[in-house]
Amino acid sequence: MSDLSSVKALVFDVFGTVVDWRTSLITDLMWWGKGRGISADWTALVDGWRGMYTAAMDDVRKHPERGYVILDVLHRRSLDKLVEKFAIKGLTEADLDYITKGWHRLHPWPDSVAGLTRLKTKFVISPLSNGNVALLTNMAKFAGLPWDLIMSAELCEHYKPDPETYLGAARLLGLKPEQVMMVAAHNGDLAAAQKNGLKTAFVARPTEYGPLQKVDFEATGNWDIVAKDFGGVADKLGC
């Protein structure tokens, strides 16, 4: 393990690293749909929704003249396409809003809250997510995530893995990049963070995508910490 004595803050990827988005959304929509009498293949919809995530952000990057668009809006645009694709009938505007805000109601992995609470005793902890500020704030209230502050791609108007997100987080914290550690279950996220001078910690979430998981079963880079869960990160950082 490299020298981490200068690290003052930990910033976290959220979707998949801190919260189990797939199980949370599928369960939420199955119960909600049953209560509303709306039948749909919610598992396919959720997997399709996440599958549109990267392309939606890439479209924002390709058209800077249109301005930055927050993730809530991108999620709604993708949902509208999926509702049409799956021919889900009878949805009101309130229904579509409820479904979109399912991303605000995600449950944490079993180790997340306890691990974050331990890490908070020694470090400033914050999300560094592509989720917008309102989404991340509502999620923290829902899931009991003990963040010290909420940092979002929205604050930098750049989505990860753009350098502006990682460097912007360090700037907002008043720290040098090497004083900030990025914690993620995604090797690509950590590679971008490391390239911009941040320290890195990998925690595997091998069930994030359920049976569709194809990558990130294990660390594939030279990360500063590799741990099985947030408790393991806390152990290695002396919390």
From TrEMBL:
The keyword Phosphoprotein does not apply. InterPro entries: 2-HAD, HAD-like_sf, HAD-SF_hydro_IA, HAD_sf, S-2-haloacid_dehalogenase. The keyword tRNA processing does not apply. Keywords: Hydrolase. This is Haloacid dehalogenase type II. It comes from Bradyrhizobium barranii. The lineage of its organism: Bacteria, Pseudomonadati, Pseudomonadota, Alphaproteobacteria, Hyphomicrobiales.
